[in-house]
Design brief:
- The complex is a heterodimer of chains A (116) and B (109).
- Chain A has 116 residues and is mainly beta.
- Helix content of chain A is 0%, strand content 47%.
- Chain A contains no helices and eleven strands.
- In chain A, the strands form two sheets. In chain A, strands 2, 4, 5, 6, 9, 10 and 11 form a seven-stranded mixed sheet that branches. Chain A has a four-stranded antiparallel sheet with strand order 1-3-8-7, with no helix packed on it.
- In chain A, β4 and β5 form a beta hairpin.
- Chain B has 109 residues and is mainly β.
- Helices cover 0% and strands 52% of the residues of chain B.
- Chain B has no helices and twelve strands.
- In chain B, β10 and β11 form a beta hairpin.
- Chain B is globular and about 40 Å long.
- Classes of the chains: A mainly beta (116), B mainly beta (109).
- At the A-B interface, β5 and β10 of A face β5, β6 and β10 of B.
């Protein structure tokens, strides 16, 4: 079974530039998650999709972050404009159902973003 | 609010030593509990889980028991190996995953 695919693995940009990350979940997984993991901290949920609908985006900084999952499969996360504090690893995860059903989440390797 | 607290690292051990990484949680209701592991340069992997009180999760020689009375889910392994060197995250599943800050384990031969 192929895992969660993310690209790029690394990205370096200057502040105020824009950046986009891509995620392809495990085939058949209805739920997709984006997390932000700042160095030395645990991952923090940014947004959760169930198919192509948003379930939870309460911790997404909507003034600069956006995410979409138009066809209910792969997803993109965008930051525009980037700030220094956005330097982090952005993790994508997927699960068969929602986390309420105790379905385990499968994580990609992440995209490491550095803001100069 | 919901939170997970785990011991700070790094934890440094010699090969074959006994490992304990403490974890406690604060949550409404009875969350499912997980330990995830992150090997260098890799993504998070589910290590083990327990879904109700007194359940014991186990995998690859690691164990953790869901203790409702102490709201704890401590990770243990009887004899660590160099290949166990990684960052370990204690996680509570309420309506979303709540991660601890992670504990780095370094095992030396």
């Amino acid at each position: 079974e192929a895992g969660v695919a993310q690209s790029p693995r690394y990205k370096i940009i200057e502040k105020r530039q824009s950046v986009a990350f891509w995620c392809n979940p495990i085939s058949g997984h209805a739920t997709l998650y984006w997390y932000q993991q700042i160095l030395g901290q645990g991952p923090k949920l940014l947004i959760q999709f169930q198919n192509n609908g948003v379930v939870d985006d309460s911790q997404l900084p909507k003034d600069r972050f956006s995410a979409e999952r138009l066809k209910g499969v792969d997803s993109t996360l965008k930051i525009q404009p980037a700030k220094l504090e956005d330097s982090a690893v952005y993790l994508c995860a997927s699960s068969l159902g929602s986390s309420i059903g105790n379905q385990p989440q499968h994580f990609g390797d992440g995209t490491r973003l550095s803001i100069l | 609010g919901n939170s997970v607290t785990q011991m700070e690292g790094p934890v440094t051990l010699s090969e074959e030593a006994f490992l304990t990484i403490n974890c406690t949680y604060t949550a409404t209701g009875y969350p499912s509990l997980f330990w995830y592991v992150q090997y260098p340069g890799e993504g998070l992997q589910l290590l083990l889980k327990a879904t109700k009180a007194d359940d014991k999760g186990s995998n690859k020689g690691f164990e953790a028991t869901y203790r409702k009375e102490t709201t704890s889910f401590h990770l243990e392994k009887g004899s660590v190996q160099v290949s166990d060197s990684a960052v370990y995250f204690c996680v509570a599943n309420t309506d979303k995953l709540i991660f601890g800050t992670g504990t780095r384990l370094q095992v030396f031969p």
